[in-house]
Design goal:
exocytosis, mainly alpha, Exo70_C, phosphatidylinositol-4,5-bisphosphate binding, Exocyst complex component 7, 26 helices, protein transport
């Protein structure tokens, strides 16, 4: 059994071996054929490589010859093109001569510039390639003729529209809350069509290094700007003359109305509105007015006259605003006509003369103000403050407009502010000194409010409108700045400005009080001295109470009103001592009531009573005569003093009168008992009334 199995396994192995041998033989056969194929392919590739080498040897010379021929052809074509191009340069002069000698606007600026471009290119060619050529002279000469023609066209077109902006248009611009491209769209300095031609000419001239036209442009536009400002000034001057004849406001049309026939009624109405608005603002700012309340309380107080001409100041304020508006319009125009990198420089040249003129006018007005101040007319300072406030308010607009300009141009506007501030500094210092010196003027004979007191209070009250404007000026004074220490640490700029002005007003009032108190010592009549001081203290307090001055002074002197009330009470007390001579006679030596009732008077007693009545009559008549000449302009104070007098004297005289009126101390009663208590009351009621 085992033998059979072994034989079977051996048979299987033998079969498998035969099978593997057969497969190996097959693989060897395949490898042989593959090797033969590879050998054949290698032979074919070698043969192909040899053929390519022979082909390259045959074709390459032919290819090189063809390339050389193509390059020669291309060079020939380029040469012919260059010849045509060069020949064209020789023909340019003849082709464009008739165009160039015409006026650019007659044939059209774009076409003229095309001809000039051809000439410029021709000149460049001859300069680079044949500078000794005779043709270059012809081309260069024609090019210069064309350049001059373009420059002349540029100047002539600018001159044609070198017209001032109508004053009515300028005034309407001044009414605008903000000046921008939209609000300036109605100001047509140069028509749009002309602007396009001028822009093209300017670009061409700039491209060809002809910069003279920028100077020409700046000069012409600067003259036009000055003409616009002058037209506005003349317009307002003529309107001022008309206003002087009672026909309208400063900016009303007046004699120029005939030139403005194209302005419809709506525009005229709007212009009048602008004028009235400007007049109201300036009138409040620079006139020495007294409020209706002040006039009611103190009708006898002197009101100072105006110093600097209001019209001149208003003209200047409008010139400042108008220059900003019109300069902005010129800047926008320059952006359209001048190359971008030269706009700022050109704009500086345009502004130079108008800005210099503005500074000169400001210096002139400041000089006039200083002269007025030196004569004691401090109302002129209010004109300067009005100018300073306006210039300060508009400074940010100028700064934005002049952002890229040189410092010298920007400094011109700052110089105006500095000049006006310096004028105000000197005026403020001079006013304090004048309060001291003017106090030495003659005293009023009737003891009324001193002129310097009314002037000082009116002036300081008018400063209220300029509190923010005055702050930078007052900050220069360290003594005034120290007063800010009483303010809260977080006090804003507005409160600090008020405190600074309050400190200045306090200084003025302190010097004022010292001046009139010292000067009043020259009164020989102590009663009149008390009346004079009472009037002045009361005037100061009433003015403080009826204005914002008290609130300002209270920031640095909280007890200000109490101080003046105490002084008023003290002067009333001193005044009441004037009754001592009268009261002296109302206290004769005491006599027993029983003696008076029994009528058993001694001759000595009768004489005492007679002397008492006679003395009272005499002193009362003298006091009535004198005190009728005293003046107390404040009705409330006047009536209060009369009431105090009556309450002080009448009870005493009533008691005296009742005690002796029925006593037979004389046969001639009417001689001694001349006045009843009612008569005395009437006499007192006529005090401080010179017409009584």
């Amino acid at each position: 059994m085992m033998i059979e199995q072994n034989l079977e396994k051996k048979l299987n192995v033998t079969k498998q071996l035969e099978k593997e041998v057969n497969q190996l033989a097959s693989v060897r056969d395949i490898l042989g054929r593959s090797s033969q194929v590879a050998t054949n392919v290698g032979n074919i590739l070698d043969s192909f490589e040899h053929r390519l080498a022979r082909l390259e040897t045959t074709i390459l010379p032919l290819y090189q010859q063809t390339g050389n021929l193509q390059r020669r052809q291309l060079n020939t074509e380029k040469t012919l093109q260059e010849l045509d191009h060069v020949i064209g340069y020789y023909n340019v002069a003849g082709q464009v001569e008739s165009l160039v000698k015409e006026r650019p606007s007659s044939i059209g600026v774009p076409q003229y510039l095309q001809a000039m471009d051809r000439l410029a290119e021709t000149c460049k060619y001859f300069e680079q390639n044949k500078p000794e050529s005779v043709e270059i002279e012809n081309v260069t000469s024609l090019f210069e003729i064309g350049t001059d023609a373009l420059g002349k066209e540029f100047r002539d077109e600018l001159k044609k529209y070198q017209k001032p902006v109508p004053p009515v248009t300028t005034l309407e611009l001044l009414e605008e809350e903000e000046i921008n491209e939209e609000t300036l769209s109605g100001v047509e300095l140069v028509p749009p069509g002309v602007r396009e031609d001028l822009r093209a000419i300017a670009a061409w001239l700039d491209k060809h290094n002809n910069t003279d036209r920028l100077t020409v442009y700046a000069k012409l536009r600067s003259d036009a700007l000055k003409q616009s400002l002058r037209a506005l000034r003349d317009y307002q001057r003529s309107s001022s003359m008309e206003r002087g004849q009672g026909t309208g406001s400063l900016n009303s049309p007046g004699p120029l109305r005939g030139r403005l026939t194209k302005v419809d009624s709506t525009s005229k109405s709007r212009t009048l509105k602008i004028s009235n608005k400007a007049n109201r603002i300036l009138q409040k700012a620079i006139t020495g007015h007294v409020s209706s309340r002040r006039q009611e309380l103190f009708p006898e107080v002197w009101v100072p006259t105006e110093g600097l001409e209001d019209t001149e100041v208003e003209l200047y304020l409008n010139q400042v605003s108008a220059l900003h508006c019109l300069a902005f319009a010129e800047y926008l125009l320059a952006q359209q006509l001048v190359p971008e990198d030269r706009v700022t420089r050109t704009f500086e040249m345009i502004l130079k003369d108008p800005m210099d003129q503005l500074v000169t006018e400001g210096e002139g007005l400041a000089t006039q103000a200083r002269r007025s101040v030196s004569r004691g007319d401090y109302q002129a300072m209010l004109s300067v403050l009005a100018m300073l406030r306006h210039v300060t308010n508009i400074q940010p607009e100028y700064d934005r407009l002049l952002t890229n300009c040189q410092t010298s141009i920007r400094a011109k506007f700052a110089a105006i502010i500095h000049m006006l501030q310096e004028t105000c500094v000197k005026a403020l210092e001079g006013f304090v000194d004048s309060v001291k010196s003017d106090g030495e003027r003659g005293l009023p004979k009737d003891g009324t409010v001193h002129q310097i007191t009314s002037n000082a209070l009116i002036f300081t009250e008018q400063l209220l409108d300029y509190t923010p404007t005055l702050a930078p000026i007052l900050q220069r004074d360290m003594l005034l700045t120290n007063a800010l220490s009483n303010l809260p640490r977080n006090a804003d700029a507005s409160l600090q400005a008020k405190a600074l002005l309050g400190a200045y007003v306090k200084r003025v009032l302190a010097n004022l009080c010292l001046a009139f108190v010292s000067r009043s010592e020259t009164y020989s009549d102590a009663t009149l001295r008390a009346i004079f001081r009472l009037n002045n203290y009361n005037y100061i307090l009433k003015t403080l109470l009826n204005s914002e001055l008290l609130n300002l002074v209270a920031l640095v002197e909280p007890q200000c009103d109490k101080m003046y009330n105490d002084q008023i009470m003290e002067q009333k007390r001193l005044y009441s001592q004037s009754w001592s001579r009268v009261l002296h006679y109302l206290n004769p030596e005491d006599m027993p009531p029983s003696v008076i009732q029994a009528g058993k008077l001694r001759d000595k007693d009768r004489q005492l009573i007679k002397e008492a009545f006679a003395g009272f009559n005499k002193e009362m008549e003298e006091m009535s005569r004198v005190q009728r000449s005293y003046s107390i302009p404040d009705r409330e104070l006047r009536e209060s003093l009369k009431r105090d007098n009556m309450e002080y004297i009448l009870p005493k005289y009533q008691a005296f009168y009742d005690r002796y009126v029925n006593v037979a101390f004389t046969k001639n009663t009417e001689k001694y008992i001349k006045y009843s208590p009612a008569d005395v009351s009437n006499m007192v009621d006529k005090f401080f009334d010179v017409a009584a």
